[in-house]
Amino acid sequence: MTKGNKIFVAIGILIIISVITAIMYSKYLDQLNFKSNDSIEAEETTYSTTVRERSTAYHTTAQDRSVPYIGMSEENANSTELGPAGRIITNNMAENGKILKYYTYLYYNSKKEIVFSATFKKGTCTEINDYRDDPWKQNGGPTVSGTSWVRNTTKRRSTDSYSAKDFADEDDFYDWYYDDFYDGEEAEDYYNEWN
């Protein structure tokens, strides 16, 4: 067999293998039973309608209960049946290349347990957490670096933009605001200046 014939036979074998592979793949695709785009769009519409209905029902219920709800103005955050927030946590976030502040309002019951939280961005409530049925206990609730949240009963200084008095120690303070300071020493100095 000449070199030309060998190449011709090799090409023929590759073509046969390709055809067999294409046939097998075609049978595999047929077995998958792909849904049509119309049925996918119908499922998406049904899903988004269900989510919208449930969301509207929950927010209407929240408004009726007079607690913070998604879409609520921050101006009304302290005018609910829960009373004024016991603590407001200020955080920074990057959005479209700009640093924006957002605030988490924590509401407490008479036992100083967290019963509700609401996060406000750009003056509007964007997230709520209702813990009234299972309040976060002072020593068993959410923590920052292992230190339990506690209710802030002291007045904040208006010039302390980071509310350093709300933290148990400088390590917790730095862990919370590490992006805002050059290093731990700078955060510690700021913390000590306000405590």
The gross shape turns out to be: elongated
Low-confidence stretches: 138-158
Instruction: Supply the helix-strand structural class.
Output: alpha+beta
Written as H for each helix and E for each strand, in order along the chain, the element string is HHEEEEEEHH
Neighbour order of strands in the largest sheet: 1-2-3-4
Strands, total number:
6
Sheet having the most strands: 4 strands, antiparallel
Helicity level? 25-40%
Q: Give the termini distance in whole angstroms.
A: 94 Å
Beta content comes to 15-25%
Average pLDDT metric: 75
Counting structural domains, the number is 2
Q: Helical stretch count?
A: 4
Computed over alpha carbons, the radius of gyration is 30 Å
Structural commentary:
The chain has helices at 3-31, 37-65, 170-177, 184-193; strands at residues 87-95, 98-108, 114-121, 124-130, 143-144, 147-148. The protein has 195 residues and is of the alpha+beta class. The chain has 2 domains: 3-65, no CATH class; 74-193, no CATH class. The strands form 2 sheets. A 4-stranded antiparallel beta sheet has the order 1-2-3-4, with no helix packed on it. Strands 5-6 form a two-stranded antiparallel ribbon. Helix 3 (170-177) crosses helix 4. The protein starts with a helix and ends with a helix.
